[in-house]
Amino acid sequence: MKSLLFLVLISICWAEPHPDNSSLEHERIIHIQENGPRLLVVAEQAKIFSHRGGNVTLPCKFYHEHTSTAGSGTHKIRVKWTKLTSDYLKEVDVFVAMGHHRKSYGNYQGRVFLRESSENDASLIITNIILEDYGRYKCEVIEGLEDDTAVVALNLEGVVFPYSPRLGRYNLNFHEAQRACLDQDSVIASFDQLYDAWRSGLDWCNAGWLSDGSVQYPITKPREPCGGKNTVPGVRNYGFWDKDKSRYDVFCFTSNFNGRFYYLIHPTKLTYDEAVQACMKDGAQIAKVGQIFAAWKLLGYDRCDAGWLADGSVRYPISRPRKRCSPNEAAVRFVGFPDKKHKLYGVYCFRAYN
Length: 354
Description:
Elements: H1 2-15, H2 22-27, E1 39-42, E2 47-50, E3 56-58, E4 61-64, E5 77-84, E6 91-98, E7 101-104, E8 112-114, E9 124-126, E10 135-143, E11 146-156, E12 159-163, H3 174-183, E13 187-188, H4 191-199, E14 208-209, E15 214-219, E16 234-240, E17 249-254, E18 259-263, H5 272-281, E19 285-286, H6 289-299, E20 307-308, E21 314-318, E22 331-336, E23 346-352
Parallel strand pairs: 2-11, 14-17, 20-23
Antiparallel strand pairs: 1-4, 3-9, 5-6, 5-10, 6-7, 8-9, 10-11, 12-17, 13-17, 14-15, 15-16, 18-23, 19-23, 20-21, 21-22
């Protein structure tokens, strides 16, 4: 009996795993394989192009791996669209759908809905696009414990332009820069927008804020005051600065507009206040800086007459360089911020379409 008990104790000790024996530890891992196919979310296009005032569809479909079915039927499908901020630090809610429930958020209310061309279609339609809609969107589909995501970028046709106020160079903190762009019918530009503008020939030596909080500037013709004449062309990056205390210019972005931009034919030159009243008398408003850039870049507007704009600056757009009118390059020429009460110029007006 004692010998039998001794053999049992030996068997128990032999079966007990040793804590330092890694091979025995691995043998204790239990692998659980989930039943059913894995949920997949796919965007057929990674980048979509549109313009302000247009409608666009951001593609997104969901499947189960190795099957063509949209869902298992055991759980309700939840579709959530969010927008990634330019610094990628957070997401902004855009639209959520689950069953018959639908909800849109913020500026997207009344402008977004699902296409639902099939049972696995989670594509988002955005109507009456505004400048703030530009950016990257995440489509997330959730079914029970399974979920997957896809990201789609919405790009807008438009123009990037540098801006500084009447106070002069380097007088805007980040928040003031945002407001300055909004006041001129535009939004603060993203790095991607500035990069595309640089590739199209934008050259500007003053550093300006971008939407991610960085400060950068584009150089196509290296020269001594702008980083040195022996440096390579590119978008120069100052890095990220204090949004409240640091002061720079800003790069703004605007797109096409729903209205008419024009130089007002008037018998005399005008002071600033007279220019404002003249546009109002013509059923319009004095034009903004973003509107003159959009008309120049997107519509090819060309006029050699300097005219007042809403911010008190005087500019004129040249699409066909010629003698006395920007002979070397097509550009929106900047005259300056003249004395509003005494200097006389023409005026550019903008009449919105209803």
